From TrEMBL:
Organism phylogeny: Eukaryota, Metazoa, Chordata, Craniata, Vertebrata
Catalytic activity: tRNA(Met) + L-methionine + ATP = L-methionyl-tRNA(Met) + AMP + diphosphate
GO CC list: mitochondrial matrix
Source taxon at top rank: Eukaryota
Keywords: Aminoacyl-tRNA synthetase, ATP-binding, Ligase, Mitochondrion, Nucleotide-binding, Protein biosynthesis, Transit peptide
Family named by the database record: Belongs to the class-I aminoacyl-tRNA synthetase family.
Methionyl-tRNA synthetase anticodon-binding domain mapped to chain residues: 438-549
Pfam families documented for this protein: Anticodon_3, tRNA-synt_1g
Keyword Ligase included in the entry's annotation: yes
Protein name, per record: Methionine--tRNA ligase, mitochondrial
UniProt main location, coarse: mitochondrion
Enzyme Commission code(s) on record: 6.1.1.10
Location in the cell: Mitochondrion matrix
Keyword Chloroplast: no
Length: 599
């Protein structure tokens, strides 16, 4: 890995170069809002010495098999992790399973299994899904592991020694499904399937029960002003803005102390409270500490803990943006740098649920649409601010249009033997495409060049703020422009025997391959297999695919292009095969025995 100093120098120079560049001025092409963000980033993350980055997914409950929403959380985190690696960061990426608590205890009982065997089975299913979908985690944690139990007990003792935990009596509403305590204002009425009136959480719709028991309480109420100070001083701590505002709003409301244990007689499946075998630690406290366990807590967590970023779904924001920071403040530990919040996937406009029979199995879908296809769809259509609706048809339409036709078609057009008989990265001719107009290019071509030159800065901004769909929108628009460029100049109509035509033809292909190289490089965090195939076909070596290598069209600026004259890669297979909309049901892979028995 390059030394931080060297990278800092190069990166800052690179941005400086971007700002100086006369023919294409990426920064000036951005909106003022984007411009400020790029420049702010230049001085904070590019020039910062600490090149470590730590990203986490929520750990997943093992009461049921993984569904599409779980894969979505993991794909977002994987995308950010891969992006940081491309930028030269030393990135750690943690995911895993949340295995304690009443909900899991009850699910294991219902399955007639001992809890650990039950947890192991389902945890393996999550792992299998993530491995199949190229989720490149560096750490997979299970809360039933010894090291984690030690970390939780240590964390508890620190809070206790600071006088932040006291024995009390909790009386109020509890939702086992959400493993959450609720105030009266968070509870409403509903009717169950037999028509009986029940109480439910207004937020999740899950059933709540009245609970009264002796347990340990955490002095959450004492942390309101510190939490407000943290948010006031860090407007980017919770993103998008909408969720930051929601947390500020919650902090205006009642913030009672939090029950952080359950009586052992009711909950055996969990970590016992140190020094009190009659009580079990509340599953959310247990689960949140997983982020610290992976970082090396309690002995050597600083390297990672100081640069922690969490991805969370909107349903678990309160736990991450109020309880967790309060616990951390209490324990004297730094707070996470960013909590990125995403919204949910619905199916047919409804929440996915077993009873509605609309749960989308992500493994099954990724076998039909390919892993990269599913990753692309989730990140292109998933919008952090609001829910997105899933249908197979949307997947097929989007992937056919953007991956098969637009991107795949462009690659095919520029590498097909008919147009590129020598199978090389052809030469660029400066007279055919001079930086001042006068060659054979038209004004739209210059706009296209400008857009592609700007693209890395634009994509970077969107990746940084978890607006991955906007990054993909920008890439997709550029791919369309490059297709327009090829279409406009119809290289297949040029006469190879005429040297001027031949030079122009080579230049068109050179420019198009340069565009494809940029798209392939920037898409690596989203569709690693397709990007690899694309870059390999262009002859771009693994060591030439980082963010620092993007340098678009150097020949246009009078610099050397390392790819010019290079042989193309030999794999000329289709980049992404078109999907047929019929017979999706027939294509569904047969369920394995294991899958059946876990249901
Ligand atoms: N175990 C807790 C998290 C503890 S983290 C210390 C939990 N687990 S979960 O399995 O229920 O949810 C894990 C993630 O999946 C959450 O980010 C949640 O928002 C996400 N999703 C669950 N359903 C979803 C959709 N329908 N759509 C998108 N994501 C959703 O909560």
């Amino acid at each position: 890995m390059r030394t931080p100093f060297l990278f800092v120098t190069r990166s800052c120079k690179a941005v400086h170069r971007l700002q100086q560049s006369s023919f294409l001025s990426p920064i000036s092409a951005l909106s003022s809002h984007q411009r400020i963000a790029v420049l702010r980033n230049t001085s904070t993350h590019f020039c910062k010495e600490d090149r470590s980055y730590y990203i986490t997914t929520p750990i997943f409950y093992v009461n049921a098999s993984p569904h599409l929403g779980h894969l979505y959380s993991a794909v977002i985190a994987d995308c950010l992790h891969r992006y940081k690696l491309l930028q030269g960061f030393n990135s750690k990426f943690a995911t895993g399973t949340d295995e304690h608590g009443l909900k899991i205890q009850q699910a294991a009982e219902a399955a007639g299994k001992d809890p650990l065997t039950f947890c192991t089975d389902v945890s393996e299913r999550f792992k299998h899904l993530f491995n199949s979908c190229n989720i490149s985690y560096t750490d997979y944690i299970r809360t039933t592991e010894q090291a984690h139990c030690q970390a939780v007990k240590h964390f508890w003792s620190v809070l206790c020694n600071k006088g932040l935990i006291y024995k009390g009596s909790y009386e109020g509403w509890y939702s086992t499904q959400d493993e959450s305590f609720l105030t009266a204002s968070q509870v409403g009425h509903a009717w169950d399937s037999s028509g009986k009136e029940i109480k439910v959480s207004l937020e999740s719709g899950h059933k709540v029960e009245w609970m009264k028991e002796e347990n340990y309480m955490f002095r959450l109420s004492a942390f309101r002003s510190q939490l407000l100070d943290w948010l006031g001083g860090n407007p980017g701590a919770i993103q998008p803005e909408r969720f930051y505002q929601a947390v500020l709003q919650w902090l205006q409301e009642d913030l009672p102390d939090l029950s952080v244990s359950r009586q052992r007689s009711r909950l055996q499946w969990g970590i016992p409270v140190p020094g009190d075998a009659e009580q079990t630690i509340y599953v959310w406290l247990d689960a949140l500490v997983n982020y610290l366990t992976v970082a090396g807590y309690p002995d050597k967590h600083s390297q990672w803990w100081n640069v922690a970023h969490h991805i969370v779904g909107k349903d678990i924001l309160k736990f991450h943006a109020i309880y967790w920071p309060a616990f951390l403040l209490g324990a004297g530990l730094p707070l996470p740098q960013t909590i990125y919040v995403h919204s949910h996937w619905t199916v047919g406009g409804k929440k996915m649920s077993k009873s509605l029979g609309n749960v989308v199995d992500p493994l099954e879908r990724s076998q039909i649409f390919t892993t990269d296809g599913m990753r692309y769809f989730l990140l292109r259509q998933g919008v952090p601010d609001s829910d997105s609706d899933y249908t197979d048809n949307k997947v097929i339409k989007l992937l056919n249009a953007e991956l098969a036709d637009s991107l795949g078609g462009l690659l095919n057009r520029c590498t097909a033997p008919a147009i590129n008989p020598a199978q090389v990265y052809p030469s660029f001719c400066p007279q055919s495409l001079p930086s001042q107009q006068g060659g054979r290019a038209v004004v739209e071509d210059y706009h296209m060049l400008d857009a592609v030159k700007n693209l890395p800065a634009v994509v970077e901004q969107h990746y940084e703020s978890m607006h991955v769909y906007k990054a993909l929108e920008a890439i997709s628009a550029c791919v369309r422009q490059t297709n327009g460029f090829v279409q406009r100049h119809a290289p297949w109509k040029l006469d190879r025997r005429d040297s001027k035509d031949q030079h122009w033809l080579d230049t068109i292909i050179h420019v198009s391959l340069e565009c494809l190289r940029i798209y392939g490089t920037l898409l690596q965090p989203i569709v690693p297999e397709i990007s690899n195939k694309l870059l390999s076909r262009l002859g771009v070596q693994p060591g030439e695919r980082s963010w620092a290598d993007v340098n678009f069209l150097p020949r246009y600026k009078g610099m050397d292009c390392p790819f010019e004259g290079r042989a193309l890669g030999s794999d000329s297979g289709v980049l992404f095969s078109r999907l047929e909309s019929q017979n999706i049901d027939k294509q569904k892979p047969k369920k394995t025995k294991k899958a059946e028995h876990l249901k």
